[in-house]
Amino acid sequence: MKGICSMPIVTVLLTSYNHGDYIRGSIESILNQTFKDFELYIIDDCSSDNSWDIIQEYKDDRIIAIRHEKNEGGCTTRALYSGFKGKYFAMAHCDDMWELDKLEKQVNYLESHPEAGACFTNVQLIDDDGNNFDQENHPYSHVFLNENMTRFEWLNHFFYHGNRLCHPSSLIRMDVQMKDDLFAAGLGALPDYYRWVKLCLKHEIYVHPDKLTKFRIHADESNTSGQTPVNQIRVHNEFYQIAKLYETIQNKDEFLQVFPEANEYVVDGRINVDYALAQIMLNKTNNKGFHFYAMNKLMELVRNEKTKDELIELYGFTKRDVCNISGRLDLFHVIADDEYLTTSLFYANEEGFSEEHKLSKTITMMNNHFKVTFELENKEVKQLRFDPTEGKYISLKNISVLIDNQKYDLPEVIRYHEMDGDWIDIYSLDPSLLIDLKKTTLVNKVVVEADIKYIENSKLLNYENKVEELRRKSIDNLSIKQLLSVIKNRGKR
Fold first, then answer.
1. DSSP result, 420-468
2. pTM of the full predicted structure?
3. What is the pLDDT of residues 312-324, one digit of tens each?
4. Which CATH number fits domain 10-225: 3.20.20.10, 3.90.550.10, 3.30.565.10, 3.30.750.24?
């Protein structure tokens, strides 16, 4: 199916894979835009359902439909883009939809604001049936609702909070897309995050305040991919690539606009930005990909004769300090995993959980038991969410929660789980416990204690089947619906 649009203002790329139930709504929300001057590429990645049959039903001259003969896992290659004719580029997903005036409002903005490299929109969540999805505490409920910031503020925000922009809401200048190489070849977990960081290194962006993009939340959470072991490993590796983007900010004034906190590394008006970035990554994040980058960067700096002397002069930092850091950072899990836990406590009142209301601690597990204390300093709290660890499959028993020396009821496990005798097997890489105080209370100290072990490999071999089994059993259960209000943000595949 080949369209005849000659020189369209916008090129829209709609990616399709096994969403035959939704793709018709997606296509029609594009074709019915009030802004008509566009070409629509529909790339079907060898769907095994009826998606391609539905695509072929549409005879609009603006459509260029392509079907991969085998699943290629994506279609955002430079070679494909070379055939695009639009001045602007928009990405769409086959299970999402647009408001009919999305392109019109975005094109109007970019036409009148040449300094902006891209225009995004705020987002309306929808459910499987296309109805508005308004669960206030769902991880996506606020993540795609953004106030406008400078590109420097966006870079800082991305650094600490990850991606906060919805890809199918974007309209990007095609020359920016191509000249700045906004491609993420080889990235499978964080490609959008990588693109937006790279975009903001050179260009301002704008988020239209209207909810012009409809982003679908599936009841089975099939649009979240962060829980699989493969993806967890991939995320850490890809954060290293994102760290390398930040090292390109070498101008002192720009660096301090991105990282105002780096002023502590300014000495007599001088700063080594590579050193400052490495120290921020080490001391202000828990990101292993960032830590790996920072460790390598510090080693590189002390090996260079010029920068070695500069670090000694400015910071009294020597190769011995690097050795001390390298002995402290267990990046390759030399110490057995069962000896360390990275625990987190989220506290919420009426607004729900957020990264801003999070306390984290790394503790040692002794004899399959842990005890961790969090100081909240009299925060107003209605609910607590305790994450015993990150990136590990665990079983718990004998869970005890003390809040200001008062014992609370057994917390609710808010991930897919089942009982194995007295043990609670949690089939999630983000195990979480919900502690409901019933009413807003001033809290000073929280102590959580439990017996813990790791789920046996024999069980994990059946991981995917187990999760699917638990999902089927629980999908209509109220407790599973409640978990939607407390799980962390996950990227959309």
1. ETTEEEE-SSS--EEEEEEEEEEEEEEEEEEEEEEPPHHHHTTHHHHHH
2. 0.69
3. 999 999 999 999 8
4. 3.90.550.10
